[in-house]
Amino acid sequence: MRFNEKEMVSLSRQPSEMAAELGMRGPKKGDVVKRRLVKLVVNFLFYFRIDEEEPIGALLLEQCRVEKEDKQTFSIAFLDEAERKYVFECDSEDQCKEWIDAIIKASYEFMRKNLIFYRTEIHRLTGKDPLEQYGISDEARFQVSNGLQALPRETSTL
């Protein structure tokens, strides 16, 4: 997926699902924890220097693993680059749980699994495919036989 800087800055200014100042450590060896404003917008996690309007970086929350490191810390690592791990320090255990949950729910894959699950349930209860009314072709539809599989709460792959 390709993005230009102007598009990313524009997206970072959209209303966020969550935003907070968190401690953040990047993936490079020797990186130290720095306070950053972190914003979850759609399936991007933007991070900013405190009191700056433009993001200094963004993480696309796809093909990654979210893990709870300890009570107040979670990490995001990318499946194709396991060594590329970002660590976030929250102010409380509850805040950490909220961030993990929100990040998991922001993923396209999570939304796709939910669509499949609810489509299957509607089909089971009514005998009708709820997407037929929108003229979605058979080959473009998700498989009705698939269902949502629960992932462990502490670790999740997006």
UniProtKB/TrEMBL annotation:
Record-given protein name: Pleckstrin homology domain-containing family J member 1
Record organism: Oryzias sinensis (Chinese medaka)
Pfam families: PH
GO CC aspect terms: cytosol; early endosome; recycling endosome; trans-Golgi network
An annotated GO BP: receptor recycling
Domain PH, first and last residues per copy: 15-108
Xref: PANTHER family: PLECKSTRIN HOMOLOGY DOMAIN-CONTAINING FAMILY J MEMBER 1, SESQUIPEDALIAN
Coiled coil: none
InterPro entries recorded: Boi1/Boi2-like, PH-like_dom_sf, PH_domain
Tree of life domain: Eukaryota
